[in-house]
Amino acid sequence: MGKFGMGQPVRRVEDERLLTGHGRYTDDISLQHQAYGYVLRSPHAHARILRLDARDARAAPGVLAVLTADELKADGLGTLLCAIPLENKDGTPLKTPPRPLLQGERVRYVGDPVAFVVAETLQEARDAAELIDVEYETLPSVTATAGALAAAAPTIWPEAPGNLCFDWELGDRKATEAVFARAKRVIRLEIVNNRIVPNSMEARGAIGDYDASQNRLTLYTSSQGSHGLRAAFAKEVFNITIDKLRVVTPDVGGGFGMKIFPYPEQGLVLWAARRLKRPVKWASERSEAFISDSHGRDNVSVAELALDENARFLALRVSTVANLGAYLSQYAPYIPTEAGTHMFAGVYTFESVYVEVKGVFTNTVPIDAYRGAGRPEAAYLVERLVDHAARELGLAPDEIRRRNFIPAEAMPYTTATGLVYDTGDFAGVMAEALKAADWAGFASRRAASPKAGKRRGIGLAYYIEKCGGGEDERAHIRFEPDGQISLFVGSLSNGQGHETAFAQLAADRFGVDIGRIKVIQGDTDLIDFGRGTGGSRALPVQGSAVVRTADKVLEKAKKIAAHLLEANELDVEFKEGVFAIAGTDRRMTIDEVAKAAFDAKRLPAGMTPGLEDKVHHMPAAPTYPNGCHICEVEIDEATGIVEVVRYHVVDDFGVVVNPILLAGQVHGGIAQGVGQALLERTVYDPESGQLLAGSFMDYDMPRADNLPEIVFATHNVPSTANPLGVKGAGEAGAIGAPPAVINAVVDALAELGIRHVDMPATPETVWRLIAGAKAAKAA
């Protein structure tokens, strides 16, 4: 195996460019005669627009246009559509109210766009926006997830009475109730999965351009998939064929799901560019991102676990209220339903699982996928409930899991929610994690903490997720005359290291230096097909397409080599970049073959010159990465501060392509999971609907000192779902970390009688719990 082969720790090839300031992000792009756009947003959570007067703004210096809902209607632009055709329990469709680019009659959350100002400079656009006179009639609002269904809650959409978007179920209610009826014990827990603001390092941005000679639009934007945006805006908003819209995504500084979807601002810059016949640029400010980027999570659930006399799991019953925000973002209904609930079976041998989910509208920023997209919510619920059950029954957390794991010899295994796990060794993974974390030695570490005024706890969580499946992906590989190998992919890197991973796969297949491979992504004019990035699909799906395409290219190269070596194709072997005739010294390098491929005279009869191919890969099934997280915390009783002091994780990711990239994904995911568990608190004022945690002054992001050294290892069982045997790793850390951290916090506080702590376990929250428990004990 060469130094760029499968499993080798190849350093990221894109880092030299990115770390030396040579990255090209959306905000780095400036087009000739470019104008600047500014979005005027609603200051109210819920209000009627009685009057909007933009005359003074239109007359302001430098102003080129002030676009409102009136112009939107006059130009006949469509709305942003939800892509999920979810059905209610009774078979009726979910409620899908319209989401135009600008609101003209009513606003439904703080940040709702009402006007788009375009000027020669950003400052002129900003100044002009302040001259727009909007008269609002404020209306009652509701921001609390559970409160949206209250009888007294204000109605946000007339077509959705009671603010109910959908009432959906998974599983057999009667069968599950029958299992609960014969259970020896039922454990119940109310669980909140807190709202998250993604806060990618690079804020969103977009540039619209219009070529009048071709009547063609171009959108430059930070995204997770150029082709998806092209389809959404061409078909739904502008009613044009997709060839009339080009979408280009350059380097992207983080997405975490939030940059998958079409946003109003992307449509606004395209619309303004077409009207003005000049480029228009918009870039989000950080405070603007808090009220315009899609948020994540925000579920309230009641979970019940039925057990027999031996603490074996019989059934699970869950009722969830899922906040969708004021409008349906593109995939929003899918996240708390299909994406997450099938994972409620976890890694356990349940007989039956029943889940009902009510999706509700609130006067908040729309919700959609955030790293893990439904699977973190499922893992958190199941692993908190299992830990709670262990404490209620007097069992060790590892013991109750060990009794209920699906055994490795049962694979492939069909879960109670209908998923088929192809491979997995859950008991083996947990055993390795317990050993690495010195689970047996925890008691002595706990005994030492009180001397420093601390309480120490340990938490275990076992996650599994469904990913790496879904729709197809295509790769296109072309040997160029100058010796470079161009690799075109529809997947799109947001910082995960795709350029390295895909180049490594191609270099391994061709036996060449990784520096020869140029990965091309993000431009719909250069790449004719792509699904984008999400759901940890990059390696399982796009990576499989890469290796299958490489193999097709090698098939042609082998025919050429056999022709030039005057040998039977069956006698030609290929290894480490060289075609050779078995048992002889006759050989040709792949570079020699590629050069010959451009000379029609040297090719077999009827063969087209050049060395390239395209292959679609449709995944046969999803993959199921899984792993065990073990977290130790110390809590300062005087301040409530929770410190993560030890963190160990053992994962099963199937075959590993690049351990450096893998570790980076796991570390980053754990950081985000710890952030949700301990720090990130999204707070809306219940009276005004204002987002109180709307900046980094009020919204606490994880930093380096919030984490100890993360000790990471793998216990891999290859997947059977794709040619590479990989399982996907991009979201795993964010799935396993929250329950492990909160289980540790609860363990540290259990002696005080505290049985549950909702995320985020901030110092204030923990201090109040400690003070309350001590006061109750004293009384």
Write a concise keyword list for the protein shown above.
about 775 residues, alpha+beta, seven-stranded mixed β-sheet, five-stranded mixed β-sheet, about 30% helix, globular
Which percent range describes the beta-strand content? Answer: 15-25%
Strand-pairing-aware structural class: alpha+beta
Shape: globular
Strand order of the largest sheet: 3-5-1-12-9-10-11
Bin the helical content. Answer: 25-40%
Note poorly predicted spans. none
Number of distinct beta strands: 28
What is Rg?
Answer: 28 Å
Mean pLDDT level: 97
The major beta sheet can be summarized as: 7 strands, mixed
Number of H- or I-type helical stretches: 19
The rounded distance between the terminal residues' Cα atoms is 70 Å
Query: Oligomer, anyone?
Result: single chain
Structural description of this entry:
This protein is an alpha+beta fold. The protein has 19 helices and 28 strands. The strands form seven sheets. The protein has a seven-stranded mixed beta sheet with strand order 3-5-1-12-9-10-11, with helices on both faces. A five-stranded mixed beta sheet has the order 7-15-14-13-8, sandwiched between helices. Helix 9 links the parallel strand 14 and strand 15. Helix 9 crosses helix 10 (375-393) and helix 14 (498-510) packs parallel to helix 15. The chain starts with 14 loop residues before the first helix and ends with a helix.
Produce a short descriptive summary.
It contains 19 helices and 28 strands. The chain has 779 residues and is an alpha+beta fold.
